[in-house]
Design goal:
Elements: E1 6-12, H1 19-27, E2 34-41, H2 47-57, E3 61-66, H3 71-81, E4 86-89, E5 95-96, H4 100-110, E6 114-124, E7 130-134, E8 154-156, H5 157-163, H6 174-182, E9 187-199, H7 205-208, H8 210-224, H9 231-241, H10 253-269, H11 275-285, H12 290-297
Length: 298
């Protein structure tokens, strides 16, 4: 069998609730020449059984199982197995619109100077309510900040390898670390069409571990300006490797409250009455959250 054009890579941990919707969105793509590499990162729910069910029906699905090591190491394993000319990311719980792969492939083939293609994203809350649309202007300095959502990334495998790929030192912000290095080999482009739908799951990394991500972002930009042979480079990488969840699965009520406040504010800006539910839960977790109280009163 010839190698596929695209390798879709996804890591998943206990994603049984939403994984069928995610997998079906990739299998429904209008562009069909792809493999779907799914790394089961030590799931303890029914994720493994569901993946095996799909793998038996569609030979394009390749499942890797590993002990729970986190998303970064899952993606490293998945990308190492990739046979496609391009790698497309996908996150469990999210949905790719049917023409996502076809349109990203067309974009990157039309401009060989591109190192990464993303797209706009519609974000939805835990209850399926629309939260906001994330979209960048074409001239946005993406290399300075990254793309709107990790799962939208589409890039050449050759450049992934040349840049050094995902690095195990980055438990968080592994995506930005890669984008900054990919940007040295070409431009980053974002399709304005929303070809991806992302779900805000309560407790997900992007909302809970913001402090750690900010610390790693500073390290990433410091590394960008150094040469790998510089002693400070190795020191910064070691420092990055120390930034991990202190107690896995034990998230403080303060951090959970911050995430609920963000969701509540987004819904309130759209006049969605569901905002009160999130803000009320926020102040229940953190009675001293003044901004949440003010948003409820105003």
């Amino acid at each position: 069998m010839p190698d596929p054009v695209i390798s879709v890579v996804m890591g998943v941990y206990n994603g049984g609730e939403y994984i069928r919707e995610t997998v079906n969105s990739i299998l429904s793509q209008t562009f069909r020449d792809f493999e779907f590499i799914i790394v089961n990162d030590g799931s303890t729910d029914n994720t493994g059984e569901i993946l095996q069910e799909y793998a038996k029906k569609d030979p394009r699905i390749k499942v890797i199982r590993q002990e729970n090591q986190g998303l970064t190491k899952a993606l490293i394993a998945g990308c190492q197995m990739a046979q496609g000319e391009y790698i497309a990311r996908q996150d469990c719980g999210d949905v790719s619109k049917p023409e996502r792969l076809a349109k990203q492939l067309k974009c990157i083939n039309a401009d060989k100077g591109l190192a990464l293609v993303s797209c706009s994203v519609n974000f939805f809350g835990p209850a399926g309510e629309f939260v906001f649309l994330s979209s960048f202007k074409p001239d946005y300095r993406l290399a300075q900040r990254g793309i709107s959502w990790h799962g939208t990334a589409f890039f050449p495998k050759e450049l992934y390898k040349k840049s050094g790929g995902y690095r195990s030192e980055f438990y968080f912000a592994q995506d930005l670390d890669l984008w900054v290095r990919l940007a040295k080999y070409g431009k980053i482009s974002v399709l304005l069409e929303a070809l991806y739908e992302a779900r805000f799951a309560e407790g997900q990394i992007s909302g809970i571990y913001r402090k750690e991500q900010i610390a790693l972002t500073k390290i990433i930009y410091s590394l960008r300006d150094l040469k790998p042979g510089d002693p400070k480079y190795k020191s910064l990488l070691s420092k990055a490797g120390l930034i991990k969840p202190k107690e896995k699965g034990n998230v403080s009520s303060f951090r959970k409250a911050q995430q609920l406040y963000f969701l509540g504010r987004c819904l309130k800006s759209q006049n969605n009455p569901g905002y009160r539910n999130y803000l009320q839960r926020c102040v229940k977790l953190n009675p001293l959250h003044i901004k949440a109280w003010l948003s409820l009163i105003a």
